Amino acid sequence: MRKFALTLVLVAAMLLGAGCRDSRHIPMANGRPQVTIMVGGLEKIIYLPAMLTQQLGHFTNNDIDVTLLSEQSGATAETALLTGDVQAVVGFYDHTIDLQAKEQCITSVVQMADVPGEVELVSARDAATVTYPTDFRGKNLGVTSLGSSTDFLTQALAGQAGLTTADYNRVKVGAGQTFIAGMNHGGIDAGMTTDPTVAQMVNAGQAKVLVDLRTESGTRRALGGLYPSSSLYMRCDTVKAHPEIVQKLVTSFVQTLRWIKQHSPAQIADKMPPQYAGGNRDLYLQSIADSIGMFNGDGIMKTEGAQNALRILGTYSKNVAPVKDRIDIAATYTTEFARAAPRD
């Protein structure tokens, strides 16, 4: 019995240790940090800087080894970060606000874009009757997953048109081919997605653009201001424990953002893995050209954007709304590392 009891104690200790992995720990190998970053869809143009940074060799040149993982749902990516399975996430900034509402400290260390880069598409069959978010009433609206940034933005578009979540249905359809199938087979009437899915569906005559959040003007018109999106975010305790490693990461991304501003869509496409074009280079070039203006070139958050994101989530997010007055927006991002990134 004593032996059995001891075994139970050891098993419990092992399970407890596995569930409480110290996310502040960053592995080292041959003197180089080993960082795993989960990206909310590596093939999405809105997260293009992640793979491009690797392809340009910036991680290697800054003495850091990075493994990139792809996960279509931002909500799943944030869970992997909180459990310590990854050290960083390339995803939407608004997750840092949502998680603080849940008493978790996550901070954006590189802010790559000041606008969402998302598009609300309406299916070709519904395009004549759904011409504005007020027409969402009774419709099935596609989002990546419930609790994702596309979910927040969908609620914001509908909410600013006077609708509540009781007036329409949010449907989890993921991204890419699952989104396309959902729209083409009647699972959704409209939905929020990114390039290259936008270019693919519009060019094929399967959908039309209803709301375009790839530009500053379109974003301000739809959301009342900037809405920062693509970012590199990490746990606050990891940033505090390893500022020198964070600086290496941030410098790598900022170098890529500067490179993007100096090169054409064709030059950018040439650096990306060939399979990302999906056998249609012209469509891929169009996707890059339509969305590449979303990236800010310096990795620095604009205060206006962070405040507008808090306003929107404080209105439409069930997690943030009850505690919006207690959110410390300054803790959700830092410009320290991006400003310190050396010039080439």
Characterization of the model:
This protein is 42% helix and 17% strand. With 344 residues, the protein is of the alpha/beta class. Strands 1, 2, 3, 4, 5 and 11 form a six-stranded mixed sheet that branches. It has a five-stranded mixed sheet with strand order 8-7-9-6-10, with helices on both faces. The radius of gyration is 21 Å and the shape is globular. The N terminus is likely disordered. Keywords: Signal. Its main location: periplasm. Belongs to the bacterial solute-binding protein SsuA/TauA family.
Note the run of SSEs as H and E: HEEHHEHEHEEEHEHEHEHEHHHHHH
**What is the mean predicted local confidence, pLDDT?**
91
Tell me the β content. Answer: 15-25%
**Helix/strand/pairing class, anyone?**
alpha/beta
Radius of gyration: 21 Å
Distance linking N and C termini: 67 Å
Pfam family, one: NMT1
Signal peptide: 1-18
Protein name: Nitrate ABC transporter substrate-binding protein
Family: Belongs to the bacterial solute-binding protein SsuA/TauA family.
Helix/strand layout:
Blueprint: H1 2-19, E1 28-29, E2 32-39, H2 48-55, H3 58-61, E3 65-70, H4 74-82, E4 88-92, H5 94-101, E5 106-111, E6 118-123, E7 140-143, H6 149-160, E8 169-172, H7 177-184, E9 190-193, H8 197-203, E10 207-213, H9 216-223, E11 230-235, H10 236-241, H11 243-261, H12 265-271, H13 281-291, H14 303-316, H15 336-340
Parallel strand pairs: 2-3, 2-4, 7-8, 7-9
Antiparallel strand pairs: 1-2, 4-11, 5-11, 6-9, 6-10
Summarize this structure briefly:
By secondary structure, the chain is of the alpha/beta class.
